[in-house]
Design goal:
Blueprint: H1 2-13, E1 18-24, E2 30-37, E3 45-54, E4 58-69, E5 73-80, E6 83-88, E7 91-96, E8 103-106, E9 116-124, E10 127-132
Antiparallel strand pairs: 1-2, 2-3, 3-4, 5-6, 5-9, 6-7, 7-8, 9-10
């Protein structure tokens, strides 16, 4: 009976999502990580978190959403001097990686200059991955 219960629990938990993708810059000690987590298989949404890391100075975990769709898309823009703009759907945040303390929710103005597009965190083959931005084509 106990073995059957363990097998049934593992089947129930197998539908859950828990993965992450990392964007590293300035070496391995400086990074932004997006993590998505679905606690129960029957949920249609996931919790999305951003970890800003600048070792050994700081490491901070920020919650972006507790009810995002499982096939998330998180865009990343470099605004200079350790400042990053993060856009997920209609939400926009600004994070900094010098002290990792600040995550500010901003108004998502489509015309605003968010900085240089670095890439995006997207779901590829049911796994979260970071896709770097395409380099602009050379002018002719």
């Amino acid at each position: 009976m106990r073995k059957l219960l363990i097998v049934m629990l593992s089947v129930l938990l197998s539908g859950c999502v828990q993965d992450f993708a990392i964007y590293m810059f300035d070496g391995h000690d400086h990074s932004l990580t997006v993590r998505r987590q679905q606690n129960y298989f029957w949920q249609d949404t996931v919790e999305v978190q951003l970890r800003a890391t600048n070792l050994p100075q700081c490491q901070r975990l920020h919650t972006l959403s507790t009810a995002a769709p499982a096939d998330i898309k998180v865009e990343l823009f470099a605004a200079g001097d350790g400042v990053w703009n993060i856009r997920m759907g209609k939400q926009l945040w600004q994070a900094e990686t010098n002290t990792c303390n600040q995550l500010t929710e901003m108004e998502n103005d489509p015309k605003a200059d968010l900085g240089q597009r670095v890439g995006q965190f997207v779901v590829v083959d049911e796994k979260l991955a970071f896709e770097p931005a395409q380099a602009p084509a050379p002018a002719q």
